């Protein structure tokens, strides 16, 4: 029975960590990973632990969330502290300490274990790719290193752009065009398919399911998108439908994760009745539009108004998206 041990901050986990852990797991029967975090970290330790458990379900993932000395000069009890922590985390014999940095050899000696200098940083190779990755670089510009982020971390750093508006304002068409332009995914509207399947006579339970299903589709797509995720709609629009259909908005529809940006499409687009639309009369359509905008205000959403012909809407949407990207200090290419 061979047992291995890895420790790190994983702030955030990246391809260098993933390849290290996968290689280490292949060499031992049991692998324990200790995530070291502090309460002030930019990504909570608990979230990183959940990511690693999702990525490596056959490993034991332990967590320590307090300040620790990083160098022997930081504390006269440096080795006593680390020996105590690791022994508490892994009371069984450790056969292999895995790591790509020299401190692993010192830790291995303290536990009479064998140091295996494994991973992307060995010999400082491949500095333009895996070997040059670091949590600091990724935190500075995660989108620049997108190809080296595992799914859960991509989900954390992805931005969702949601189209918002009443019937027949071109949401689906614009969503597809934006997704093609940014080489990413679009999450389609669940509610339309639901109503085509089950009819448009929706009650509260139907509307709650529509909102939950829409948000579940968005969350499931986040790890697979290319930095941006384009959503045809989300639960906030379902809340507006609820107000129109049943006279109130269930709280559950307001409480989901909000998109980073809502593009609010104006009603200056021509109304086209395709057989599934309900609120086509001018007065009712105007009321629906007011309700849809009120929902965004209630949710304190980040919005940009979009109007004009189809090309004008597309270019205005791109400008709004790229303004948000720049404001967050990210790079799209």
From TrEMBL:
NadR/Ttd14 AAA domain span: 161-313
Residue ranges constituting the Cytidyltransferase-like domain according to the UniProt record: 7-55
Xref: InterPro entries: Cyt_trans-like, NAD_biosynth-regulator, NadR/Ttd14_AAA_dom, P-loop_NTPase, Rossmann-like_a/b/a_fold
Protein name, entry field: AAA family ATPase
Species in which this protein is naturally found: Sphingomonas alba
């Amino acid at each position: 029975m061979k047992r291995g041990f890895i420790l790190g901050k994983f702030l955030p986990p990246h391809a260098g960590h993933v390849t290290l852990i996968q290689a280490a797991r292949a060499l031992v029967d049991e692998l324990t990973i200790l995530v070291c975090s502090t309460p002030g970290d930019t990504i909570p330790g608990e979230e990183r632990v959940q990511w690693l458990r999702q990525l490596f379900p056959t490993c034991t993932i332990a967590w320590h969330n307090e300040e620790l000395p990083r160098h022997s000069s930081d504390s006269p009890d440096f080795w006593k502290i680390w020996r105590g922590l690791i022994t508490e985390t892994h009371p069984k014999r450790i056969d292999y300490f895995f790591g790509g940095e020299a401190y692993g050899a010192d830790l291995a000696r303290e536990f009479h274990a064998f140091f295996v200098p494994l991973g992307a940083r060995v010999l400082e190779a491949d500095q333009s790719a895996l070997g040059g990755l670091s949590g600091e670089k990724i935190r500075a510009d995660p989108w620049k290193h997108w190809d080296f982020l595992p799914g859960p971390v991509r989900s954390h750093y992805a931005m969702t752009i949601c189209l918002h508006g009443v019937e027949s304002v071109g949401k689906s068409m614009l969503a597809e065009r934006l997704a093609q332009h940014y080489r990413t995914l679009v999450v389609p509207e669940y509610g339309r398919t639901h109503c085509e399947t089950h009819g448009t006579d929706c009650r509260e339970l139907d509307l709650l399911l529509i909102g939950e299903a829409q948000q579940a589709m968005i969350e499931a797509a986040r790890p697979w998108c290319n930095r941006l995720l384009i959503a045809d709609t989300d639960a906030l629009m379902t809340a507006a439908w609820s107000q129109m259909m049943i006279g109130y908005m269930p709280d559950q529809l307001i409480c989901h994760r909000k998109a980073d940006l809502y593009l609010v499409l104006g009603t200056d687009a021509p109304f086209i009745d395709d057989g599934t639309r309900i609120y086509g009369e001018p007065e009712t359509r105007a009321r629906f539009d007011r309700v849809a905008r009120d929902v965004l205000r209630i949710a304190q959403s980040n919005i940009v108004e979009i109007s004009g012909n189809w090309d004008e809407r597309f270019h205005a949407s791109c400008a709004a998206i790229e303004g948000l990207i720049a404001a967050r200090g990210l790079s799209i290419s």
